[in-house]
Every structure is written in structure tokens, then in C-alpha cells.
DNA sequence: CCTGTATGTAAGTGCATGCTAACATCAGTC
DNA sequence: GACTGATGTTAGCATGCACTTACATACAGG
């Protein structure tokens, strides 16, 4: 075996993810991916078989990276919300891979849809459980779970959206966002 | 002159917008656009010169369509917010053109960026003025204009985002969204 | 009927794309 | 030092792309 076996894959996956976010599925050409990864184009096909498989695998791993973003209730709702907001802000807004753009691409390129859904499903569950927990504990209003989750995560997505598309807009003030949310949704 | 002169342009612009939202800039090929519009591909080039010009014009008109979405304060904050939410929900979430996807594409395809900025700028101003007005009137908390706007519009974008990307998630309950917002941000 | 204009049809050009084939290199293993 | 496996280099193929050219058709106004 070569020394760099695993590294080659990692570099291809990372380059694929970046280009997918920057340029979209069709804009992430195999030539560009290979160039950014610093390997020959043919290596991409030898290791992943096709562009679709490489990108699907890249999306799957990007989703798995979200595992680190905890959404486990500690008992202190305000602190948990702030931490969650911080954890989600980076991948949505500024992270090199731009989860935001990935999701958009995945919704369009059929080959990626399954990979994204697979990667996101446990995350969605965790967030639902988090809010449901604080509802049962009496800290949040009962009912309307989806609207509530959206009221909390929506502004994070929205801020990323406006920043990416208009290039303007300051970074969201997370403390004030949490405060506004609690004002509207705490029991 | 032909009878259908204006109609040809309109159909091309509409088809271009739909495909841009569905498939992205590169996925919106001139063949597909012409086919959906029901005209010959060569007609597209005769009337708009190039794909880039057609799509830029389509985005410009889509932005102009937002003009109808009023953000003029009437004095009744709650009613205004609800109307605004309703007016924004359709283009963001379900409208055929999917403003959401357009904005994503425009942020990537340099040729469209100017057209989108041009179309969006008056809209952004109107929304800022709307919230600033109710701040001065004492109905909304002073300061933090951007965070506040984001708290209101973010969930609308977020709901569209989750619907489009995951295919799931119910439509946002606008009345409860407005109520939650007022709970957090009214003075 | 004639002319001008908007459209359609058909064919094609040059380029980028995803992907393949053939051969060379280079580092470890035995 | 031969062998193996991962890589690089080069060339190429078929396809789809934006876009063009040339010619035919249809319809309106004079």
C-alpha cells in the first residue's frame, strides 16, 4: 500500500464538498475537484467510480460531522439554546462546506438526495427531542413543535441566506436571538 | 408584426425562471427552456441574445414582482405582520419561481448577481423602513433592527428551506409565528 | 399581391464534460 | 531485486452545451 492511501480520499472528499457548495452539482466538475485536491482526475474515478458516488459520499460525511453539534438538554434551557445556536451558526453560515448550499444542491440533484436525508435524519430527530423535552419539562409552551423549532432555527438559516445571497447583513446576535425566542415561546 | 410577439418573450422568461429554480443555472439549459416555453431554441437567442441575458432579465422581473408585496405600515402592527408574512410565504415557499432558489443561484452565477441585487434592493429598504417605523411608534423594541427583521423573516426562509430540502415539514402556522414574534419583540 | 417581421427546421461548430484505456512511476513487501 | 498496488501522464471518446447559419413558413399591413 501507498502511504497516502487514506489521505487521497480525504482530499477528494473535501474538495468535492467545497466545490459543491461554491458552484453547485454541475459546477463541481471532476476536473476541478481533482485539481483542488491535488490529484489526477483519473484517480477520482479509480477511487470512487463516478462523480455521483464521490459527491454522495462527501455529503454523507458532511452530515455525519453534524453529530458533534449537540442538542442534549442539560436542564438550563437558555444556556442550551445559546450553545445550540452557536453550534449551528458556523456550519450554516460560514463553514467551509456551507451546509446551507449543500442542502440546496442535494434537493436538486437526485443522486444526492438520499445521502443527505440519511445524514440529516438523526439530526432532525435530536432537535425535535430537545424541544419536546423542554416542553414536557414545562419550560416551553406546549404544542406547535414545528413552528417553535422553526422560530428558533429559521433565523439561523435566514441569516445565512441573506449573507450568502446579498453579501450583506451583520452576523446574527445570538444572545438577542435567544432572548427574543424565549420571550415568544417560553411558558 | 406577429400576433404573439410579446407572448413569446413572456413564455421564455417564465420557463427560464422555473428551470432556474428547479435545476439551477447550469441545469437551466437553453434547450430545456425553449422546450418548456414551447418555442424553438433559436428563437431564444434571437430575442435575448444569450442565455445569460435571458436569465438576468427573468430574475429582474421576478424581483419586480415583489413590488406587490406591501410592507407599508397601516398602524395595526399585528395585522401588518400577518399580511407581510402571508405575502412573503408564497414566493419563498411554494411559488413556481421559488425566490429562495433564485437567490441561491444568483449568488453563484456572477451574471445574475447584479440583476438580483437591483431587483431586491428596494424590497430590503421597504422592510427596514417598516420595522423602523413601528420602532419609532413605540410598538417594537428599540435597537437591533437586523436581528429583529431576521427573527421575523428568518423562519419564513427557514420553513421554505426545510420544505425544499427535506421535502417534509408542515407549512408554517403564520398566526402562531406572528404571535411568537410579538411575544419576543413587541415593546 | 407584395413586403417585412417573427417564427420554425435543419445542420453544424467549438468547447467542456464524465469517463476510459494504455502505459509509466514510485514506494513499500517478500 | 522482482512483485504489488496506488498513483501519474497522455490521449481520446461520446455526449451535451451555448450559439450560429441558411433556408423555409406564416401572418400582418399597405
Q: What is the CATH architecture descriptor of the largest domain in chain A?
A: Orthogonal Bundle
Q: What's the overall average pLDDT of chain A, rounded?
A: 85
Q: What is the string of helix and strand elements of chain A?
A: HHHHHHHHH
Largest interface (C-beta under 8 Å): A-B, 49 and 49 residues
Query: What is the CATH homology-level superfamily of the largest domain in chain A?
Result: Tetracycline Repressor, domain 2
Biggest β-sheet strands, sense, barrel of chain A: none
Q: What is the CA-based Rg of chain A, rounded?
A: 19 Å
CATH topology heading of the largest domain in chain A: Tetracycline Repressor, domain 2
Count of alpha and pi helical runs of chain A: 9
Morphology of chain A: elongated
Number of strands of chain A: 0
Percent of residues in beta strands of chain A: under 5%
By oligomeric state, this entry counts as homodimer
Classify the secondary structure makeup of chain A into a structural class: mainly alpha
Percent range for helical residues of chain A?
Answer: over 70%
Number of domains of chain A: 2
Describe the protein.
2 copies of one chain form a homodimer. Chain A folds into 2 domains: 5-55, Arc Repressor Mutant, subunit A (Orthogonal Bundle), CATH 1.10.10.60; 63-185, Tetracycline Repressor, domain 2, CATH 1.10.357. The termini of chain A are far apart. The longest helix of chain A is centred in the middle third of the chain and has 27 residues, at 110-136. Chain A has 9 helices and no strands. Chain A is elongated. In chain A, 41% of the residues are buried. The first copy, chain A, has 187 residues and is mostly helical. The interface between A and B is large, with 49 and 49 residues.
